Amino acid sequence: PPETRAAARARPRSGPAPVTDVAKLCVCDLLVAQCDVNCCCDPDCSAADFSLFTTCSVPIVTGDSHLCSQKAAIYSLDVEANPPERIFKLIDQVNPSVFCIHTTNYKQALSLSSPEMPTSENFDQLLKQFGSASFSAEPDSWSMNTDAQNPSDENETYRYEYGVPIQTADAFLRLPSPVVSSWCSDANPAGFLVNQATKCIRSVSVEKCGNIQAVSMLFYINSSILAFVLQVNITVQSIVVQSLNGMRTLLNGSDVLRLPMILDELCINIVLGVTYHITYTDAGEIIEAAASFVLGAINKEALSIQQSFEISFTQVNTKPVPLSGNPGYVVGLPVRAGFRPQGYPFPIEILFAALVLNTNKYSQLTILQSTSNQDCLAAQGARTPILFGYNMISGCKLRITAAMKCQPLTQTLLDLLKGQSFPEYVASFGNSQAQDVLDWVPITHLHISEQRIHNTFQSSCQIPVSLEMEVKWTKYGSLVNPQARIVNVTATITTTTLKQLPSGRERTIPITSSVVFTDISSPAEPGYKAWPTINAKLPFDFFFPFV
After folding, report:
1. Which residues are in the Tectonic-1-3 N-terminal domain (predicted)?
2. Are 358 and 433 part of one and the same domain?
3. Which of 113, 119, 340, 496 is the most exposed, fewest CB within 10 Å of its CB?
């Protein structure tokens, strides 16, 4: 009714409370849990640190400069005090520009969230919401109360962004790594969504193994991760025990904490390796953390051990898919492939998997693996991944007898050459996502018929004898750092016609499979010169103190 609309217009509408507290912003805070020199807004700096500063590298901190009115944090030094002190002021700053933002009342625009992908289940709902010529972007959380207060620190949440150190109750999640030398440093924080794998040397001795924290399981799981609302404890996923001769055994129970101890002049249960696996949501909230351990033993002669550490991240309700480059392919990593499920474009998804040595179960681009006896019928199911940039050829021998039927033999050879489920698409980049349909290249299939071979079949029979795959790729991007991109994939099946031979005769024919990578990059245009190559070695401490 008109009176209701008029009343709604008369009431002042305000957005949610500001989500940016300038008093907590600090762009010069670069070191984790350490005081940055001349960074007056660094919360890790104490009064003693401020007394040694000569200036404030960032004297003013503000939020969005487009706002008409906003808070500003002012930092300065009182050099006349003894000792010098830091002065902090929080003022209201007015934007003199006529074109300014009065209120940031659309909270959803302050962060980037993954869009909801249309599926057969939610398509009607999305069409109803966004299908008209115009639609409302008002979030349901808008408040009609002008007296909205800032949220308290009690409700502070931990939503992580890429590369931000993962906070724990005492400091941050440690991922030991070598710094200047190969010795382990425990000051390396694990960054959110940054997959890392490190190895370093740790000094140990049997007499003191029980007092060295870094060789104990407790050192890596005794602190909980600060997550959304609650704290996430690090659980033990698995424990593998390694003997002195290198043999490894997986323990059945992983709920037992095994601490280092001396037994028969040996120190057992020392940590040789830790693998963290973090599960998170699309909003950057960590909901689960698990650790897998490799425990070993040392004798009195051992003065040091090598430890390995690794961390990986998986989004909840998704399957982890290893990449083969970012973005371009890396030579030696598997070519990623997949197929388009039935019902496309609902859901808009291409199912794919990383290539591993198996029976091509998950629609993976693989090639026939040669066996020692070269028997084709015995080689069924043996596949090996196609690695980017590696030309490969493999094969076997097929002995044809009079008892073999044409149709089953043809299907057996096709399964042998192509695998149980030959993919339809290949990822153009090493990091192509399933929902980015245009980043996937369809595989072109060709058939060639060759000469005839006599055999024992009553009539002519066409059997496949070879599969040749050609992968064309190009250098994409700048000349300084070109990225490998696949632009075309062709799979050619060559068949041979078999005809009847006298009874009792046998024939052995070769079956081959190959893949060739062809660089079709265009040469640089005349007038453009490639960047020169500098053949120089940097000093070992060039990046000190950074890793």
Report:
1. 18-123
2. yes
3. 113
